[in-house]
Amino acid sequence: RLLGAGMMGTRFLCLDRQENAEVAVLALRSDSIDRDPHAVVREAHAARDLDHPAVVRVVEAGFAGDGGDRA
What residue spans of the chain are helical by DSSP H? Predict the structure, then answer.
């Protein structure tokens, strides 16, 4: 389900089938990233270890079409 769209990309409400939980997926717009996309993914991977009530939890990050079920 579409949650919204903005300058950075489009957000969807999806079901994580492995965890059986609702998750928000952000599909970044390629023209909204002003630096190396691989650096953005590395930062997202580093953010997976953060656990704070004021920080959105990152579950997974990657590129569409890299073999996963990501959109």
Answer: 37-47
